[in-house]
Amino acid sequence: MSKRTVYDPTDPAFRLENSPFYLIAHADFRYHQQMDEALQHHGVSKPIYRIMTVLRERQPVSIGTLADVALTKRSTVSRIVDRMVDQGLAATAPNDADSRITDVTLTDAGQRTLDKLTPVVGEQLDRAFAGIAEADMTALLSTLRRISSNLAKADRG
Amino acid sequence: MSKRTVYDPTDPAFRLENSPFYLIAHADFRYHQQMDEALQHHGVSKPIYRIMTVLRERQPVSIGTLADVALTKRSTVSRIVDRMVDQGLAATAPNDADSRITDVTLTDAGQRTLDKLTPVVGEQLDRAFAGIAEADMTALLSTLRRISSNLAKADRG
DNA sequence: CATCAATACTTGCATCTGCACGTAATCGGC
DNA sequence: GCCGATTACGTGCAGATGCAAGTATTGATG
To answer: Which of A119, B28, B72, B89 counts the highest number of beta carbons within 10 A?
Structure first.
């Protein structure tokens, strides 16, 4: 007989509330809920903030890379960046070496907005992880990485 | 000085790839990617499958409860159920005791579809959790529950 | 250097989602 | 038993997303 874990949905004992991906979705959902509220106070949309967090680390960066890192389709990122340009948060320019590529950078206003938002998000993270031991956080990250890696493998296979 | 963890986005050492919620989103994203492919082969959309997993455990169930458990807005669930009814997967009827409530149930065809899908999803979960110790899974669930609970508290406060 | 394939992005279209509002039904105070 | 408040759901509308197709640019091949 197939000996799976209790997370096996074919098992009659299976319950959604014990299902890892349900709990992952749940944590993700609550986080987005909080983010939405916090960001709206500052007039920034969730997708725009998501792109900004990538731009914080890499700049300039192409639309394609933004899409890969932000887990969003290219066409969607293209439009999000359009909005950011409209709002004066980002600037685009064709890449010097390869003019097919659109280099995206934060404007000064965009950087200021991000700097304003970062501590707000930081406080939410403090609340989210309150009472969780450092070792447990490390284990969480490690397990999540393994799950992502397993699924990425399955993608190619 | 505020002594946060390295997951503090205000810290210059902060990196997206080490951020818990980024990794949560990443795992969620890969899972959805896999699901989409698997479900499309069976002509079932992701939102419909999501609702079905709730109906597996509770039946009949109201639109509102479906929305709460499936982490989706009521109006959206209302329309997803419409589609399920159109496709012959679900049936609706006003609740006997309170006719404001719409009781949703799976039809026989819907149950058969779910039965067909469940082992497919089970195999994906096997792949996703391959090589992860039982104790690590338990820790993962525990930490995720704590995070959700922390954020739910923050919601009310 | 001409040509075909591949890459990077953009846009038209269809779909999905959520908000705000409207309708129907139930509950509570009197 | 009646009337206002609440609850549960459905719908018009606007915004966002993804797919498929199109354009522009680069690379590879001869």
So the answer is: B89
